[in-house]
Amino acid sequence: MADTVTGAPKISQPEFTKIVDKLLGSEGPVFDKNGNFYMVAPEVEKDGAFAGQILKIDLSTCKATVICEPVIDSNGGVPAGCQCDKDNIIWIADMRLGILTMDQSGQFKQFCKVDKDGNVMQGCNDCSFDYDGNLWVTAPAGEISPHPFRSSTEEPFGSVYCVTNKKEVIKVDTGYKFSNGIAVQHKQDGKPWKVIVAETFTKSLWAYDILGSGKVGQKTLWGKLPGDLEGGPDGMDFDEAGNLIVAHWGSSHLEVFGPDGGSPHTRIKCPFSKPSNVHFQPGTSTVYVTEHEFHGLWKFQWEHPGKPQYCDV
What single DSSP character describes residue 5? Predict the structure, then answer.
C-alpha cells in the first residue's frame, strides 16, 4: 500500500521473465478456455501498408506462430486488443477493421461495418467482457477502412462501444483524446458495476456506472496517473482483491489502483519503458505484460490472483 506518512505509492520490483520479443507493437494478451495464449503485432507492415498479425505463443517453448493476418477488401488490419468468449471465440479490437472474431483455426470475420444507428464503425483498440456477456470496446481511430486512417491523439473523437449480449453494437460515448485500455469492475455478487476507460493523453481513467446492456450512467473521473512525461494509461486488468493494474506507457511502470481509484497505491517497476497491456493467467498470480521498447512479452508474479475472465466464470 501507499506510504501512510508521505502518501507516496509503494515501489514494487518483481522479477520479470521475457518470453518473446520483436513482435512489432506487441499488444492484446489473452488466454482462451483451453489455456492457449494469443497476442497481436499491430505494427507489422507489408509494402508500406498495414499488415497486423495475430499470434499464438507456446509459453513452454517461447515460440510465436502467426495464425491470422486479417485483410478485408485488400485493407490490412491493425489488431490491438483481444478477449475470449464462452464459445472459445477470440474477439479482436482492430484499429482499421473495427471488431473482428476469430476461431481456433485462425479464421476471422468482421463483426460489423456500422453500429446500431447505422453509423460507420470507428477503429477499435481494446475490449473487455463483463460477466453478463457484454463486450465493452474502445475506439480511438476514425472510420474503419476503406476510409482514410485517423487517430484521436490530437482531436478528441475517440469513442466507447458496447457489443451487447444480444449482439447489438451501441456507441455509448465519444469525445476522448485516444480512448485506450478498458476494464469492467464487478460487485462481489458478480454483477457488472463500472466500466473503466483509459484516456491516454490526459493520463486519466474514466468510469461509467453500468445500468444495463449498452447503457451507462454519467462519465466521472476514476483515477489519474502520476508524472508529466509523454505517455499514459494503456491496457489494464483487475486482480481478485479489486486492484486495477494499469500499463503506464512511457513510464517504465505498471500502476496499481485500489478498488476506489484515485491515485495508484503501488508502482511496479518494469525492465522496459513502454508497457502496453497486462493479462492474468487464469487461476494464478502470473501477469503477462506486453511492451513497445523491445516489442516483447514478459511475465511476473503479483501479490494476488487475477479476477476471473468472462470465459472462465
Answer: T
Cα radius of gyration (the chain):
18
Query: Torsion angle of alpha carbons 267, 269, 275, 278, nearest 10°?
Result: -60
Distance CA 228, CA 126 (A): 24
Contact 85, 129 (CB under 8 A): yes
Distance between CA atoms of 69 and 190, rounded to whole angstroms?
35
Secondary structure (3-state) at 310: helix
Burial of 258 (0-12, 13-18, 19+ CB in 10 A): middle
Counting residues of the chain whose pLDDT is more than 70, the rounded percentage is 98
The bridge status of strand 75-76 relative to strand 71-72 is antiparallel
How far apart, in whole angstroms, are the C-alpha atoms of residue 177 and residue 155?
6
Mean pLDDT of the chain: 96
Q: 50-72, pLDDT tens digit by residue?
A: 999 999 999 999 999 999 999 99
Closest CA to 98 of 155, 175, 163, 186: 163
Question: Whose CA is closest to 130, among 212, 200, 205, 198?
Answer: 212
In Å, how far are 91, 175, 281 from 249, measured between CA atoms?
Answer: 23, 21, 21
Using a cut of 0.90, tell me whether the model's pTM lies above it. yes
Catalytic annotation, residues: 292
**Other CB atoms within 10 Å distance of the CB of residue 166:** 9
First to last CA, the chain: 29
Helix, strand, coil % in the chain, rounded to nearest 5: 0, 50, 45
